[in-house]
Please model this.
Amino acid sequence: MSFFFLCSLLFVHCYLYMSIGTKHESSLHRELKFQYAGQDGQTEAEVAGFVADGINAEGEYFEVQTGSFGPLKKKALALRRLKIIHPVIIAKYIEVYNKKGRLQYCRKSPRKGTPWDLFEVLVYAPDLPLIPGLVIELTLVDAAEQRVQDGRGSWRRRGVSIRDKRILAVHERITLKKKSDYIRFVPFKKNEKFTSALLAIKAGINVNLARKTLYVLKKLKIVKNTEKQGNSLVYKLNS
Model:
């Protein structure tokens, strides 16, 4: 799908901006809820004193989570069968509107998401994947982010507010059901030693994210420390 074609689609959705902000839930969140519920499931399912985003036809509860996974631990323990859906934006297209709701321009963000982005949020609950019945599913998408020039947003964006995000395309779903599924995040051979810097290079991520990844994988006993090189810890896959 070309950038110019996507931009033309953005104009079709100009009217959406006027209704954004009436709910805290983004269009992206809402779209995923209905996708995972399907025709025979339901959204906003209440159970054991909690409200899940929905339940599918197979009786599996699900929660769409874009932020920290920390608050989900109690819910996961109570529901016993929960799928956490974490959207990863591979390509983001930014639409900027004026106060009257007219699209001023659209552009593609230079940042590209990767499956390793999971560890930005999982680092706050590194033992969550060990809960029986818990599944984490990454949904890799292209998304449009709607912004408005209202003077109320961050100074970094010069007062432009983020109003909504919506899905443009779904590329892939990565399902993590058991501990061994997380080995995919260690692109090294069984006895190969590596540091966070080497992981960052191999995975195409920054060193800070590589450190968070290794912190979680060590908690899951996927990797272990073997030695230290200067100030850097050396890891290898746990046998």
About this structure: Strands lie at 42-47, 50-55, 61-64, 82-97, 103-108, 134-149, 160-176, 223-229, 232-237. The longest strand covers residues 160-176. Residues 3-22 have pLDDT under 50 and may be disordered. The chain has two domains: 3-177, 181-239.
